[in-house]
Design brief:
The chain has 4 helices and no strands. The chain has helices spanning 2-7, 11-35, 42-73, 76-90.
């Protein structure tokens, strides 16, 4: 919902959306790897710390880039609709999580 909307804004929106989506893809891959590891191993601890730092950096970039772009480009009602659609897509009852 969010990234497709940003891509419609042109080059700047597409650049931001693509970068954040790539970060999320890497995070999903790393989370899958973590799930398959022994949580008591040193390798797990190191990978978890790297994963955590990447998630925090991603969140910072969303706050610094995505939110201001959304605020500048969409009305309150449009942003609320995007948020509602995002929440609905995450609803476990809908089988989307």
């Amino acid at each position: 919902m969010i990234y497709p909307a940003l891509r419609k804004l042109g080059d700047e929106g597409a650049k931001v959306a693509d970068a954040r989506a790539a970060e999320e893809a890497v995070a999903k891959e790393n989370l899958t790897k973590l799930k398959g590891m022994d949580s008591r191993s040193a390798e797990f601890g190191q990978m978890f710390e790297t994963f955590k730092a990447a998630v925090m950096e991603h969140a910072s970039k969303e706050e610094a880039e995505v939110i201001p772009l959304l605020n500048a480009s969409f009305t309150d009602a449009e942003r609320e609709a995007m948020g509602d659609a995002f929440i609905a897509a995450q609803d476990p009852a809908a089988g989307n999580s």
